[in-house]
Amino acid sequence: MTHRPTHLIAPHRFFFPAATLYAAIAIPLWLTIRAGHLTAPALLPAGLWHVQEMLFGYVFAVIAGYLLTPVATYRLAGLAMLWLAGRLVWLIGNPLPDAVTFVIACAFPLALSWMGAARFRAAKRARNRVFAVILLCLGAVAVIFYGLIVTGQAMLAYRVIYIPLFLILLFILTMGGRLIPPATIGALRESGREVRIPFQPHHESTIIGCAAALICFELLPQAALWSGLTALALAITILARMRTWHSFAIFNRPELWPLHLGYAWIAVGFGVLGLSRLGIGGSQLAGLHLLTLGGIGTVSLTMLYRVTQQRQRRWRLKPHRLILIQVLLATAVVTRFISAWPAAPSTLLTLSAAAWSLAFLLFTLQALPAYLPVNRRSQRASE
After folding, report:
1. Residue 70 and residue 7: Cα distance in Å, rounded?
2. Are 310 and 319 within 8 A, CB to CB?
3. What 8-state DSSP symbol labels residue 44?
4. Structural contact between residues 96 and 86, judged by C-beta atoms closer than 8 angstroms
5. H-helix or E-strand spanning residue 71
6. DSSP-derived 3-state class of residue 351
7. Cα–Cα distance between 166 and 128 in angstroms, integer?
8. Residue 247 to residues 196, 243, 250, 328, 330: CA-CA distances in angstroms?
C-alpha cells in the first residue's frame, strides 16, 4: 500500500498578498474610524487598534511569508484562518466573551512565533539564535498586550505596544545587516566593481544591546532620559554600520537601494525619538512614523519584492513601476513626518495615507500573478 505525498504550499503565496492588500486597506479604514464615520473597534481605542494591526496584522503576515517553509495545504489554511480571525475579532462589535476575544487575538502571534523560532532554535551558530529569541518574545508580548486590552488596561497597553515595535525593528536591523551587504556586493560586482564590506560583528552586538536596553527602559517609569540616550546611541551605531555599505553606488538598482533607504529611515527615526525623549526637540510621533512607515514599510515592501522574485523566477516588476511604488512610499513617509508637527495642515495626513495605500495597492495588483497557483503540467508544456 503506497501513500500519496501530502501536497505542500509555500506560505508566502497567501501571506504576502494578504499583507500588502491589508496594508493598503487598514490605513484608510483607520482614518475613517478616526474621523468618526465608523464605530471604533470593540475594546480598542482607534489609535491603539491602528498600531497593533500594522504590527500584528501587516508585519506578522510578512514574517510568516518570509520565514515559514512550505506546509500542507490544510495547515496553511488553518494559519490563514487564524490571521483573518485576529483581524476581524476587533471589527465585529463585541458579541464574544472577552476570554474568547483574547484567545482569538493571541492565536496567530503565538503560532507564528513558535513555528518561526523553530527555524533558528537548532542553529549551529549562536548568533543566529537571536532570531528565535526575538520571535518567542514577540509571541509573549502579544499575549501580554491582548491581556491588558481585555482587562481594560488600555493606558498600560499603550506603553507595552512599544516593545513589539522595537523587537520587530531589532529583527529587521539584525537580518538586514546580514543580507544587505552581500546583496550590495553582488550588485556592484555585476557592474564591474570589486568591493568588500566587512561583517561588523561589533556593530551588530551594539545594536542588539541598545535595542534590549531600550525595551527594558520602556518597562520602567520615569526612564525618559535613559531611553532617549539609548535611542540616540542606536541611531549613531546604525549610521556607523552603514558607512561602508556603498549606499550611493547602487542607486541605479531600484530593487536594492530602498533597503539602504529603509535602514537609514530607522536610524533617523531613532534619532528623532531620542531627541524628543530628552526634551531637546523633535516629535516622538514623527520619530515613530519614521521607524514604522519609513523603516518597516520600506524594508518590508522591498524584501517582499526580492523574495517573490527569487521564488518565482519568471516574474519581476519593470523598473519604472518599482520606482513609482518606492516614490509613493517615500512620499507617505515624508508627509506623515511633517503632519506630526502641531502647525502642519491636516491634509498632509490624508496625503500620506493615500500615497501609502496606493503604493501597496499597486504592488499587490502587479505581484498577484506571482502568488497564484501554477499548473505544473501546463508550465512544462510551455517550456
Report:
1. 9
2. no
3. S
4. no
5. strand 71-72
6. helix
7. 18
8. 13, 8, 6, 20, 17
| CA distance linking residue 259 with residue 171, whole number of Å | 14
Q: Which three cell numbers stand for residue 327?
A: 516614490
Rg of the chain (C-alpha set): 21
- The verdict on pTM exceeding 0.85 is yes
- Contact between 182 and 159 (Cβ < 8 Å): no
CA distances (Å), 140 to each of 15, 136, 147, 233, 348, in order?
Answer: 22, 6, 11, 27, 36
Buried/exposed 105-138: b ≥16 CB within 10 Å, e otherwise: bbbbbbbbbebbbeebeeeeeeeeebbbbbbbbb
Q: Where are the alpha helices (DSSP H) in 54-97?
A: 60-67, 73-88
DSSP codes joined into one string, 315-353? ----HHHHHHHHHHHHHHHHHHHHHTSTTS-THHHHHHH
Render 278-319 in DSSP notation, one character per residue: HTSS--HHHHHHIIIIIIIIHHHHHHHHHHHHHHSTT----H
Instruction: Burial-class residue 367 by CB neighbours within 10 Å (0-12, 13-18, 19+).
Output: buried
Please state the separation of Cα 85 from the chain's center in Å.
20
Diameter of the chain measured on Cα atoms: 75
* Cell numbers for 227: 531611553
Query: Can you read off the three cell numbers belonging to residue 181?
Result: 551587504
Contact of 51 with 161, CB cutoff 8 Å: yes
Report the candidate in 122, 212, 121, 142 with the shortest Cα–Cα distance to residue 171: 212
Answer yes or no: are the C-beta atoms of 161 and 55 closer than 8 Å: yes
Query: How far from the centroid of its chain's Cα atoms is residue 366's Cα?
Result: 20
Can you give the pLDDT of all 383 residues of the chain as single tens digits?
444 445 788 999 999 999 999 999 999 999 998 888 888 787 888 889 999 999 999 999 999 999 998 989 999 999 999 999 999 998 887 778 889 999 999 999 999 999 999 888 776 777 788 899 999 999 999 999 999 999 989 889 998 999 999 999 999 999 999 999 999 999 999 888 888 888 888 999 999 999 999 999 988 877 889 999 999 999 999 999 999 999 999 988 999 999 999 999 999 999 999 999 998 877 888 999 999 999 999 999 999 999 999 888 778 888 899 999 999 999 999 999 999 888 888 899 999 999 999 999 999 999 998 888 764 433 433 33
293: amino acid identity, one letter: L
Can you tell me the distance from the alpha carbon of 282 to that of 275, in angstroms, rounded to the nearest whole number?
A: 6
